[in-house]
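Why does this matter for the project? Reviewers at the last site visit asked to see concrete outputs rather than summary tables. In response, this paragraph embeds two records directly. Each consists of the residue sequence and, immediately after it, the corresponding structure tokens. Nothing has been edited or filtered.
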Amino acid sequence: MNKEKAKHRKKEKKGKLRKIIIAVLTLILVISIAYITYYFYNQHKEKQDNQNILDNVEIDTSEVTEETTERMLQVRELQKENEEIIGYIEIEGTNISYPVCQAKDNDYYLTHNYKKEKASTGSIFLDKDFNLTKPSTNYLIYGHRNKQGLMFEDLIKYSKEDFYKEHPTIKFTTATSDDTYEIISAFYSRVYYKSEQNVFRYYYFVNAEAEEEYNEFVNNCKSSSIYDTGKTATYGEQLITLSTCEYSQEDGRFAVVGKKIK
């Protein structure tokens, strides 16, 4: 009799344990499904938020003149929503068509969109050290890569010379100027250790204090380039550098450099 009771109790314990395990696994499954749903919802929302941005920017077209373009007016309208928007960047043949922001540090817009909302895609942003009032020598602009093709994902297309030949320019507009930049170089790089010597840290170059510094940067860009564009820049010409991550090496980077067409 005692043996039968012991077996019954043991069976009850196993049954309770089985129920607990099933409940825990069910909870894990529900949480996992909720997380996946939330993740894809956010991804979809961020993609929607970053498509056709300019379609929602209304301007008075009567204000368009030879000196003030439609895109400049749109930048000014965007600045009413966020004063840290400093311009707009576009590259034909890519999904790159975004406001460019600038914060007091280079961290904020890694995790916030141009509306200052939390976003995993972040924003396209200008290096904090660029002085907009002068301006500085080189618009050093950063952006994440994203599997949905957002931000600077399409910048990597410039690793192919054929793509460069078909799309050799970058359009960058501020509230006061609407400019086109011709690409002079595209190259792979990485974030170097402080101990490494005689390496090209392109991500430190924002303003040239002298002609020698400017020429050194341009020469390094040209010698690092994946292919020869046949283009270069001379001291005094405004530069633009677009930088994003590159995954073939640790802390890899990919950069495209252009000069403003007069």
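We now turn to the second protein, recorded in exactly the same manner.
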Amino acid sequence: MAWIILFLAGLFEIGWAVGLKYTDGFTKLWPSVGTLASMGVSVALLALALRTLPLGTGYAVWTGIGTIGTVIFGIIVFQEPANALRLAFIAMIVGGIVGLKLITTH
């Protein structure tokens, strides 16, 4: 169950990272409210997952999910570069997440 909660926390991290782009430096009310709410939910879910998962593993996976999702969003929505080298480094992050999941006993 902790891994599901951690995955959801990572999805909300994507939400607040992407939301920052729309807040215009926290000068737009509703994007700012949504971004701050997503931050709160993300951190609260991370805290729940860390009740049973090791801190380093949980934090690494949480930030990895956020990083991967934010990069994919940027490529699709903002037409950011998707060259082979960039995608290879993102694949390494995916490999790290999978590896941490495989070696964690909780």
